[in-house]
Amino acid sequence: MINVGTAVGESGTSVGKALSLLRAFAPTGGPIGVVELARRCGMPKSTAHRLLAVLAEQGVVERWDGRWRLGITMFELGALTGVGPNSRVQQIALPYLHELAAATGHTVHLGVLDQGEVLYLSKIFGHRRIPTPTRVGGRMPAYATGLGKALLAYADPGEVGSILTGRLRPLTPSTVASEKALQAALAQARDSGIAWDQQECIPGLVCAAAPVTDGAGRAVAAISVSGPPGTAGRAHLAGRVRAAGTAISDRLRPAEPAGQRRSAGGLASPKSH
């Protein structure tokens, strides 16, 4: 999670301060009073008020009921994330996410790993959804989520090590908050292709997640299905999630060269003539 106060200290320019103000609206986007925004950014109220006025002129923020919230320009800029580095993953994954939501009736997510956290790219609701605190563009600690474990299981060891050596703060009584237990969970995820969140992030919420891998076997994203504890057919649910992750992964990989086919062992071999 980005520390707003640190960002201001490292970038004292007007642009840096304005960006810090925008980050201070996380995670909800507002509405927030100028005093609270200034406090979050560690800047004088007068400075925050001046910068907000400039941002308001461009539609980046707007006044609402005596407070401030993000404006329509931020919505327009946010829509441009479809041209970013994760756009191809999102485009390929979206039909599979909808199929999972329709087949299971539960909430389906697509996320990526960023600085030890899950960044949610997509969220599809099913008919039997239960309340979840996640949102597109939101974040959760990777160690406490199914998506995060699916991603960490295939992440760079250095990145995993930095998370394990940090403080694994329990979010619920069920959170895996020890290095040994988390390593075991990641090993299980690699062996089975499925990572579980057993009410570790939110009480009353269970999650099954599978990685989306590239041609080198690295997890570039993960998908999950979230439902209540005791969800019927959990093994079947895990199978659906794993199959969808595999299908998305296959679509991401480059097509085989013409004239080649897969042998029984899964290796490409020249086509017989």
Give a quick precis of the structure.
The protein has 273 residues and is of the alpha+beta class. Helices cover 41% and strands 20% of the residues. This is IclR family transcriptional regulator.
Q: What would you note in describing this structure?
A:
By secondary structure, the protein is of the alpha+beta class. The chain folds into two domains: 4-78, Arc Repressor Mutant, subunit A; 84-252, Beta-Lactamase. The chain contains ten helices and ten strands. It has helices spanning 4-10, 14-23, 34-41, 45-57, 72-79, 87-104, 146-152, 157-164, 179-192, 234-252, and strands spanning 61-64, 67-70, 107-114, 117-124, 139-141, 195-198, 206-213, 219-227, 260-262, 268-270. A six-stranded antiparallel β-sheet has the order 5-4-3-8-7-6, sandwiched between helices. Helix 1 (4-10) packs antiparallel against helix 2 (14-23), helix 3 packs across helix 4 and helix 6 packs antiparallel against helix 10. The N and C termini lie far apart (57 Å).
Task: Map the helices and strands.
Elements: H1 4-10, H2 14-23, H3 34-41, H4 45-57, E1 61-64, E2 67-70, H5 72-79, H6 87-104, E3 107-114, E4 117-124, E5 139-141, H7 146-152, H8 157-164, H9 179-192, E6 195-198, E7 206-213, E8 219-227, H10 234-252, E9 260-262, E10 268-270
Antiparallel strand pairs: 1-2, 3-4, 3-8, 4-5, 6-7, 7-8, 9-10
Helix pairs in contact: 1-2, 2-4, 3-4, 6-10
Region (Disordered): 246-273
Pfam family, one: IclR_C
Protein name: IclR family transcriptional regulator
